Amino acid sequence: MSGEFDLIARHWWHTVPSSSGVVLGNGDDCALLAPAPGMALATSTDMLVAGRHFLPDVDPEALGHKALAVNLSDLAAMGARPLAFTLALALPRVDEAWLAALARGMLALADAHGCALVGGDTTAGPLTLSVTVYGEVPPAQAFRRSAARVGDDVWVSGTVGDARLGLAVLLGERPPLARADWQAHVRARLERPTPRIALGLALRGIAHAAIDVSDGLVADLGHVLAASGVAAEIDIDALLVGQAVHPAVRALPLAEALSCVLAGGDDYELVFTSPAARRSEVQAAAAAAQTPVTRIGRIMPGPVATHPLADGRPRVRLCDAQGRPYPVPPGTRLGGFDHFATMSA
Predict the structure, then answer these.
(1) Nearest Cα to Cα of residue 67 among 158, 133, 21, 149
(2) Residues at the annotated binding site?
(3) Where along the chain is ATP bound (predicted)?
(4) How many Å apart are CA 1 and CA 121, to the nearest integer?
(5) Please, is 282 exposed, middle or buried when counting C-beta atoms within 10 Å of its C-beta (0-12, 13-18, 19+)?
(6) Any idea what DSSP says for residue 199?
(7) Between the CA atoms of 279, 280, 286 and 287, what dihedral angle is there, to the nearest 10 degrees?
(8) Phi then psi for 229, rounded to 5 degrees?
(9) How far apart are CA 41 and CA 199, in angstroms?
(10) Which residues line the annotated binding site for substrate?
(11) From 81's CA, which of 42, 128, 195, 203 has a CA 20 to 30 Å away?
(12) pLDDT value at position 19?
């Protein structure tokens, strides 16, 4: 049987990019990172557990990609450039082919973003991946959840709702989609999300607050609103007819489409706020990052949060293009992903 260090040598030894800010990579008790002068170190950790965050029979190469992508997405939501990451991996058994595919997917994405694997841990146990990522950002330009201001526009990148639709098809909750290209698209968006690093960097000095859409658009935007002590109006007409919703999602019955778009999560797009006077700069940043963005609402006055991490008061108002309350159809789900709920197989 392969030992821990044999597994690391075969699958996880990663050449450090010359521009990564890594002084010492894997192989020692600690890695050494050196952010550029004037930069703050940004760090985030995400855990993916079989049966809660992914199905046990998922393609391992896609799983490797996603495990790192969800962490890089957190850096994007802070406007941070990736430097390095660590991986803690629990395995029920050693499967060399499975591990090779996992590493291939993860390290390909790492190389695409100049992000070095600098350490971690492996052990026997229920299948679990825990990634900690490190990046750098000028402190004054980091996007803070508490920085949304009344009068800001609310924007979202890419398309939202795709991943939830992909999961519904995968789990057999709904029949396969009418078009094969739509089916392939939503499956790829579920299993291989794109971290919006380039957009996060391009929005430095323009955006005020940002968060990535991991648990659902309404739920994640709600974290920003609570931390900032504000509320938001979301224009459902602008959201549904614009480029933020893929045709595969738009073709669903309205309640199902709204549930995917507003509560689906797992898209890892950025929802961010910026001053209305800087709309042209947002569009220019999006064009430079080759990432479409859609303006979907505005920041309004709201109650001051008593505790930004646990503020359950509703802060998102759904409206139509004329600003009237939007008639949400029965059966629409607005709550975000629950990390303590088990996925069904």
Answers:
(1) 133
(2) 29, 44-46, 53, 74, 120-121, 145, 212, 214-215, 266, 337
(3) 120-121, 145, 214
(4) 18
(5) buried
(6) H
(7) 160
(8) 70, 35
(9) 19
(10) 53, 266, 337
(11) 128
(12) 58
pLDDT of residue 67: 96
State the amino acid at position 271 in one-letter form: V
DSSP bridge pairs for 45: 132
**Alpha helix stretches (DSSP H) within the chain:** 4-7, 60-76, 96-112, 162-170, 180-191, 197-202, 217-228, 236-241, 247-250, 254-263, 279-288
Q: Which two tokens stand for residue 16?
A: 């450090």
Cα–Cα distances (Å) from 153 to 41, 158, 234, 305, in that order, read 28, 16, 10, 20
Q: Reply yes or no on whether the pLDDT at 5 is more than 80.
A: no
Residue indicated by tokens 């008061």: 313
- The token pair at 31 is 């890695």
Q: Name residues whose C-beta falls within 8 Å of residue 340's C-beta, 6 or more positions apart in sequence.
A: none
Q: Binding site for Mg(2+): what residues are annotated? A: 29, 44-46, 74, 121, 212, 215
In the chain, % helix, strand, coil (3-state, to 5) comes to 35, 25, 40
Contact 299, 150 (CB under 8 A): yes
What's the Rg (C-alpha) of the chain? 20
In 91-105, which positions are buried (b, 16+ CB within 10 angstroms) versus exposed (e)? beeeeeebbebbbeb
Residue 231 and residue 225 in contact, taking contact as beta carbons nearer than 8 Å: yes
| Strand intervals (E) in 259-334 | 270-275, 293-301, 316-319
| 267-294 pLDDT, tens digit each | 999 999 999 999 999 999 999 999 999 9
pLDDT bucket at 29, cuts 50 / 70 / 90: confident
Nearest C-alpha neighbor of 42 from the set 222, 274, 204? 204
Query: SS3 for 11-53, per residue?
Result: HHCCCCCCCCCEEECECECCCEECCCCCCEEEEEEEEEEECCC
For residue 70, which of 91, 51, 83, 53 has the smallest C-alpha distance? Answer: 53
Which DSSP category does 146 fall into?
G
Domains of the chain from N-terminus onward? 4-140 (3.30.1330.10), 144-319 (3.90.650.10)
Average pLDDT over residues 194-220: 97
Output the pLDDT for position 20.
64
